[in-house]
């Protein structure tokens, strides 16, 4: 019978006790000066032997204890304080700091980090293979989670970025010529916002927050790039033709309406059809039309 494993408890950052290292440095220098004075004033008299021996052993021990407690924290850096493996808090005060020497100190950077992922091959929503890459700006928000809830938080970030990019890339099509749906190429703001939410959800376990992210590379995979380019060109031509025809029809309709309303000319059905055909040729033709002047004179 298998034994149930206890669930992992999530760590939470809290402030650790520490004091100014500059104050303890003054104490350290005072004790060192006292030790030098003790050694310099010892003249070997029997009454001074006891105090000299006590001072020689106790003062150096105190100096060693104080010296072991010093540590330095730079700006945008923190130190996780532990006591025999137990988390006691995080010190975010930069400068020279001091804690008891038997407490462990693990420094961790809370600065912003920039990661550019490798180009990943993903199938989009329509099954087309595409290449996609992203840049992510992230930082450590909770030092306790980053250090104690995952084994290696930096490696964890890289793996989750790849997983999130693959997930987002498969949710949307690469492109839509009709502009009727959200696409990877045409909806940058929405895709980037969803990618950021996805990453923050995945990295919450490690105490990591994502400040910004965005796609840096997006293209069809080389094996279908040529075919997809031809399809895009064909779709663009069809869309342009459709717009051209729609505009030509509206212009012909407007011309016939105004001719009729202003009584410029009265057209029967045959002449109306001929005029419509001529106007459509003029408006939709790719080449400049050559007008033919009808003088009404028979040869």
TrEMBL record:
Subcellular location: Membrane
Annotated keywords: Membrane, Transmembrane, Transmembrane helix
Transmembrane segments: 21-40, 52-71
Domain of life: Bacteria
Membrane topology: Single-pass membrane protein
Residue ranges constituting the Band domain according to the UniProt record: 68-236
SMART domains in the cross-refs: PHB
Protein's name in the database: SPFH domain-containing protein
């Amino acid at each position: 019978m298998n034994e149930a494993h206890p669930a992992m408890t999530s760590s939470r950052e809290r402030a650790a006790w520490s004091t100014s290292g500059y104050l303890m440095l003054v104490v350290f220098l005072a004790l060192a000066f006292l030790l030098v004075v003790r050694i310099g004033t010892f003249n070997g008299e029997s009454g001074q032997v006891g105090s000299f021996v006590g001072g020689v052993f106790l003062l150096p021990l105190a100096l060693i204890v104080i010296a072991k407690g010093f540590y330095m924290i730079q700006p945008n850096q923190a130190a996780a304080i532990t006591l025999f493996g137990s988390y006691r808090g995080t010190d975010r005060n930069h400068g020279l700091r001091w804690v008891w020497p038997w407490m462990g100190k693990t420094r961790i950077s809370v600065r912003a980090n920039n990661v550019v992922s490798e180009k990943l091959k993903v199938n989009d929503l329509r099954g087309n293979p595409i290449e996609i890459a992203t840049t992510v700006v992230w930082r450590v928000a909770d030092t306790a989670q980053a250090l104690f809830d995952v084994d290696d938080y930096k490696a964890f970030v890289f793996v989750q970025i790849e997983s999130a990019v693959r997930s987002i890339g498969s949710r949307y099509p690469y492109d839509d010529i009709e502009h009727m749906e959200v696409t990877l190429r045409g909806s940058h703001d929405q895709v980037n916002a969803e990618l950021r939410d996805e990453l923050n959800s995945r990295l919450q376990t490690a105490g990591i927050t994502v400040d910004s992210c965005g796609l840096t590379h997006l293209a069809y995979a080389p094996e279908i790039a040529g075919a997809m380019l031809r399809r895009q060109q064909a779709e663009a031509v069809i869309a342009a033709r459709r717009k051209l025809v729609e505009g030509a029809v509206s212009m012909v309709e407007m011309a016939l309406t105004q001719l009729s309303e202003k009584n410029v000319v009265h057209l029967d059905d045959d002449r109306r059809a001929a005029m419509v055909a001529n106007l459509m040729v003029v408006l939709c033709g790719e080449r400049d039309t050559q007008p033919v002047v009808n003088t009404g004179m028979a040869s």
